[in-house]
Amino acid sequence: MAHPELPDDYDPDKGLPFQQHPLSKAEIAKIFGPSADVQLANRSLRILHGRRVAGIIGDAVSFPDPTGYSERFARTALRWLRANHPIDEEMAYNLRLERERREVEEDLIADAERLGIYKPQGGVKDGNVYGESGLDAIREHYERQPVKTKKRPSQVEEIETNTGTVSSVRGRADLRRTDTPEWIKPYIEKAMLTKAEAPPNQSSWRRIWPSAAVAGLVVGLSVFLADHYVPPPRSARLWPDMPPAAATLLAILMANSVVLVAWRIPMAWRFLNRYFLSVPGYPFALSVVGNMFSHQQFTHFAMNMVVLWIMGTRLHDEVGRGNFLAIYFSGGVVGSLFSLVSFVARKNLVTSSLGASGAIASVIASWCCVNSE
C-alpha cells in the first residue's frame, strides 16, 4: 500500500488534499447527510487525511469541545477516507516516531553544545555520530538534574474542556487526539442531544420561529416590567443595607456564577445543552434566554461581569431597576436571536453561542444614549 510523503510545509490546521478536487454538495450529503456544511466537511476531511499522512491519526479521533462535528461524524469521515483513499497508516506512524527520535537527538546535541559538555568531532568514528563519549557526557549531565514529576490534573481540570457540548460548538474543525477520562464518557454520551451525524434537515423558518416567539414574549414582558415596576419597601428587600443597583447586579452575577459552576458538573451537561447553549443545528427556544446567563470559561465570565458591574451600576442608578432589567433581558434575548438568525442564514449549523455579551452591549448602548450630551 502506497504512502505519500509528508510535505515540509504541512500545517495540521489546514491538512492535506485527499483528492484533486473537493467533494461536491451531493457527495457530502451522500456521506454525511443533507444538512452537512460542504466547506466545513471538506476541510474536516483534509485535516483527517493530513493526520493520516503525518502518522498522528490514532483511534481517538474527535472534534474537541467545541468544534465542527461529533466524534461519530469524524469516524464516518475517517471510514470514507480509508475506503476511498487508502494509505499505509502504520508506516506513517513509524515514520513519525523516527522523525520525533531525530528531533530529540538534535535537541540533546544542541543543549549539550550550549552547556559546553559536548563538542562535535571532526568525523564519524565507528558509526557514532556523537563523537567519542559525547553521548555519555550528555546522559550524565541530565542524570544529575533533579527529577521533575508531572502533577496529575484534578478532576475539575480534567473536565474543564469537556463541557458536555452537543455535536458542536465552534465552526473551526480542529481535529486532535483527546484522552477523555473513562468516568466522564457516559455523561458526554448522555449530554449529546442527538446521535445523528449531521443536523436535521429543516427549513430556516422552522429553526428560527420558536426562538423568535420566546424572544418576542420576553421583550413584551420587559416593556410591561418597565412600565409597572414599583420598588419594594426597605423592609421587603433581601439586602436592605445594599444600594439597589449593587443588589440587582449582584443577583445577576450570582445567577451567571451558578451556571458557570454547573458547566463543571457532568450530570448537568444535558440540561445545560438544551437551555443554556444556542445551537442552530438543534435549536431549543428557551435557550435564547438561558444562554445569556451561560459561560463555560472563567475568563469569558470574568470579563463580562466586570464590564457589567462597571456600566450596569451606573445605568441602574440613572434609569431605575425596572428599566434596567427591561433593557438587560430584552437586549440579551434580541442579541441571542440575532446570533441564531445570522448562523442559520449562513447555513452555519454546527456552531453555537452563549454568554451575556448581548445583554451587556444593550446596557452600554443605553448608558451612552442616556448620557449622549
The total count of strands amounts to: 2
Largest sheet: 2 strands, antiparallel
Kindly estimate the percentage of residues that lie in beta strands according to DSSP.
Answer: under 5%
Helix and strand composition category: mainly alpha
Q: Helix share of residues?
A: 40-55%
- Radius of gyration over C-alpha positions, nearest whole angstrom: 27 Å
Total helix count? Answer: 14
Task: Describe this protein's structure.
54% of the residues lie in helices and 1% in strands. With 373 residues, the chain is an all-alpha fold. Strands 1-2 form a two-stranded antiparallel ribbon. Helix 7 (185-191) packs parallel to helix 10 and helix 12 (298-319) crosses helix 13 (321-345). It is extended and about 80 Å long.
Summarize the structure.
The protein is mostly helical and 373 residues long.
Looking at this protein, list some descriptive labels:
2 strands, mainly alpha, 373 residues, 1% strand
Q: Secondary-structure blueprint of this entry?
A:
Layout: H1 25-32, H2 38-54, E1 61-62, H3 71-84, H4 89-115, H5 134-143, H6 155-158, E2 176-177, H7 185-191, H8 204-228, H9 244-262, H10 269-275, H11 287-290, H12 298-319, H13 321-345, H14 357-370
Antiparallel strand pairs: 1-2
Helix pairs in contact: 2-3, 7-10, 8-13, 9-12, 12-13, 12-14, 13-14
